């Protein structure tokens, strides 16, 4: 595996497309949050049939996001786990993507944005229900482009310092959604 602290640009259109499907994203999240599963168990939890989940699992495997657990798989029952992928996987700059591949990147951004909107919709309820785990912060600052880039890198470093992979997490650790986004405020 590549160095976990070095950012890896998701510049393969096939990998971008693999991540742009909502069910694949839900499958990948499920495996990362709860550990190994079969297409049947994933289908039951996500409300999809086994054939559909099997197809999407194979697509995620093809692009290196998940892997089969051969020692746990028997006959037709295949067990899957997240592959050992970099923790800092970033989207390419739009101007570096070939024009014919831009719709794939746009779709991934659209699907991820829809997920984020759902998380924001749930935030007030989660904040009231489980304050120790549902935290929020809003900020406003004047920054230079270089300062914002440095802030972002420091944020990623801090995330790496405190985050654990599921299999290495200490007792009491839970999966949490964490989002950071910035955008110019002078264009409002």
TrEMBL record:
Domain HTH arsR-type: from-to ranges: 14-96
Lineage top rank: taxon: Bacteria
Pfam families per UniProt: HTH_20 (PF12840)
Signal sequence segment: none
InterPro entries: ArsR-like_HTH (IPR011991), HTH_ArsR_DNA-bd_dom (IPR001845), WH-like_DNA-bd_sf (IPR036388), WH_DNA-bd_sf (IPR036390)
Cross-referenced Gene3D superfamilies: Winged helix-like DNA-binding domain superfamily/Winged helix DNA-binding domain (1.10.10.10)
Protein name as annotated: Helix-turn-helix domain-containing protein
Annotated organism of origin: Actinomadura meridiana
């Amino acid at each position: 595996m590549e160095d976990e602290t070095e950012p890896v640009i998701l510049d393969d259109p096939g990998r971008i497309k693999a991540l742009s499907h909502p069910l694949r994203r839900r499958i990948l999240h499920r495996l990362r949050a709860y550990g190994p599963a079969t297409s049947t168990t994933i289908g039951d939890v996500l409300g999809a049939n086994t054939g559909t989940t099997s197809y999407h699992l194979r697509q995620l495997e093809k692009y290196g996001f998940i892997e089969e657990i051969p020692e746990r798989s028997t006959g037709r029952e295949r067990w899957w786990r997240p592959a050992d992928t970099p923790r800092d996987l970033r989207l390419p700059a739009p101007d570096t993507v070939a024009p014919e591949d831009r719709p794939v990147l746009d779709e991934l951004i659209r699907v991820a944005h829809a997920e984020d909107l759902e998380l924001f919709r749930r935030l007030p309820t989660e904040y009231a229900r489980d304050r120790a785990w549902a935290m929020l912060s809003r900020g406003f600052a004047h920054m230079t482009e270089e300062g914002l880039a440095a802030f972002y890198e420091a944020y990623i470093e801090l995330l790496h310092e405190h985050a654990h992979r599921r299999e290495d997490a200490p007792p009491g650790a839970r999966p949490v959604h964490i989002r950071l986004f910035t955008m110019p405020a002078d264009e409002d």
